[in-house]
Amino acid sequence: MPFSTLISTTYHPSIFSKKTNPLSLSKNPPPSTTYHPSCIRSARDEPSNKVNKPITKSSKPDKSLNNLDRRDVLLGLGGLYGATLGRAEAAPITPPDFTTCKTATDNGPPTYCCPPSTTSKIKQWEFPSSSSLMRERKAAHLLTADEIKKYNQAVALMKELPLTDPRNFTQQANVHCAYCDGAYTQAGYTVELQVHASWLFFAWHRWYLYFYERILAKLLNDETLAIPFWNWDAADGMTMPAMFVDKLTPLYDCLRNANHQPPTLINLASTTTTDLTDPELILSNYATMYKQVVQKTTPSLFFGAAYSAGTAAEPGAGSVENVPHNIVHAWTGNPNPNTPNGEDMGILYSAARDPIFFAHHSNVDRLWTIWKTLSGKNRIDFTDTDYLDSSFLFYDENAELVQVKVSDALDPSKLRYGYQDVEILWETKPTTTTTATTTSMLPTKKALAKTLKKKAGEFGSNPRQLGSIIRATVKRPKKSRSKEEKENEEEILVVNLELSRDEFVKFDVYINAEGEKFGGPASSNFIGSSVHLPHSNVMKNMKVNTLLRLPLNEALEDLGAEGDDDVEVIIVPKAGKGEKITIKGIKIEIGV
Ligand code: C2O
Questions:
Q1: Most-buried pick from 231, 264, 374, 583 (CB within 10 A)?
Q2: What is the C-alpha to C-alpha distance for residues 423 and 118, in angstroms, rounded to an integer?
Q3: Do residues 47 and 38 make contact, with C-beta atoms less than 8 angstroms apart?
């Protein structure tokens, strides 16, 4: 079928209306609902409710494939719910039991994103042949017209599949929703299975893209087909890639921020408007990349916190997941009041309904490969078996259910793909500054006046809401460490916080910043941010306890503070309701 035929009658951006109601749609249905479900129906209306019935018993996970027999888990480890820090007795995350997949809410409109019914048995996934073709994922803005056409054709074919096929585009988007929105519990436990805000983030998304890409390639019958990456870390890639903004293609999604269309450049550091010129913004973005990737020297800083069987979800996001990953999501989604929750990209349940999601995550995945090549002895994958043996279920390119584990995802070349080698301009340290460079990065004068009157005391043991800037002096476990000690271990600031699961919030963390000397991402005083992306449109009051871990080695050197007994920490609320964030404790530890 020629491409023009594929896209001719099925694409309807113009019928989008925020008030669209499914009943009125059924009176006058569009010719096809397979493209852009979110543009032609209410964002909360789930297209798959009718086909996705609870899975039949025959597709229960094959126990022999699990690392632990489920019954053993129930009997032996189930009692560990409360003892979430019992690392010695912990176990890897088990794959979900699809038969227990549930709607992500019991009040309000459901987010039903369980996989379609299947009778297929779970197979153990196998590596592709080492002689099979190596796919090259290229920068979206560098694709040729022919490559763009092929990618469009493949996504069109995926959207044309019946909804009962797990490889259908909406079903693929639902895979992400189910793994992020409370649809699954960890097999053998009552706690949620969640793939964000922990060390599972990079590996799970690598698997997700792996199967998405192979499905596209199989549908198009073209082994070379690869997911392009949205190269937002390079000057020419800092706009939404042109291939995704063409309204007449299946790569378009009308639920995006209308003010962020090309040629508007993304600000990777912030969701608030900036008064930086484009050249300044590009440099600021490079500084953000340096801080988030290069300065994060250890696995726990880069990948996120440990997450083991039976423990609570979202123990702590790694640096890139916070920024730029969550920022790019929020920047791309359609803001309130046009959509209630920043659909599609701005909230996790609907994020993968936007085809740009996969290009965004292709770049996130690429950063994992780059991070491992940077200098430093701790730029390595975790070796903990709780990490390596954690496993998931996906439908593969043949619509067969397969079980995969984290350890098999660590080397992209074994998965037969790699990334185009494009210029990287953020690996060298930005010219640092300890003075404010832009007013848009500054807290308001009023907020400053309030906090600067008294010298910060210790944080103490009382939780504090982040309605305004928090300053606290934090003791260092050791000062004046040698070069070698610092190469072996990082000095890490650990902020223990509680947030509302479904509020977008962002705060920045500075150290030893006096007066109004807050700066942008290039400032030595700036050590990182926490950005929380909401999950679903319905789980409004759920609280999450999580950790933010930020490195101090380089900042302390730059500020000439390596010999100090303590560090003054300044936490600056930037977006969302700061009162919804509770800072419960701040400490410094030395480790990886
Ligand atoms: Cu699963 Cu970008 O999120």
A1: 231
A2: 45
A3: no
Task: Determine the distance separating the centroid of ligand 1 and the alpha carbon of 447, expressed in angstroms.
Answer: 33
Pocket of ligand 1 contains residue 196 by CB under 6 Å = yes
Which amino acid, one-letter code, is at 207?
Answer: W
Please tell me the predicted confidence (pLDDT) of residue 272. 81
Measured from the Cα of 208, ligand 1's closest atom is 1
Q: Compute the distance between CA of residue 200 and CA of residue 308 in angstroms, rounded to an integer.
A: 10
What lies within 8 Å, CB to CB, of 39 at 6+ separation is: 12, 13, 15, 16, 253, 254, 255
The whole-angstrom separation of Cα 191 and Cα 42 is: 30
Q: What is the pLDDT of residues 41-59, one digit of tens each?
A: 433 334 444 445 433 333 3
Rounded CA gap, 502 and 536, in Å?
Answer: 7
Q: Which atom of ligand 1 is nearest to the CA of 321?
A: 2
The pLDDT tens digits for 393-402 are: 999 999 999 9
Cα–ligand 1 centroid distance for 539 (angstroms): 18
Radius of gyration of the chain (CA): 23
**Which of 433, 436, 506 has the alpha carbon at shortest distance from 276?**
436
303 CA distance to ligand 1 middle (Å): 14
CA of 279 to the centre of ligand 1 (A): 29
Beta bridge partners of 496: 547, 585
> Residue 220: CB within 6 Å of ligand 1?
no
325 ligand 1 Cβ < 6 A: yes
For residue range 307-358, what is the model confidence (pLDDT) as tens digits? 999 999 999 999 999 999 999 999 999 998 888 889 999 999 999 999 999 9
Say if residue 438's pLDDT is above 80: no
Residue whose Cα lies nearest atom 3 of ligand 1: it is 348
Ligand 1 atom with the shortest distance to the CA of 361? 2
Contact, 349 vs 535, CB < 8 A?
Answer: yes
For helices 169-180 and 200-220, angle between their N-to-C axes, nearest 10 degrees: 170
Q: Are 348 and 180 in contact (CB under 8 A)?
A: yes
pTM of the model: 0.85
- Ligand 1 contact, 351 CB (< 6 A): yes
Three-class secondary structure of residue 235 per DSSP: helix
Does ligand 1 have an atom closer than 6 angstroms to the CB of 176?
Answer: yes
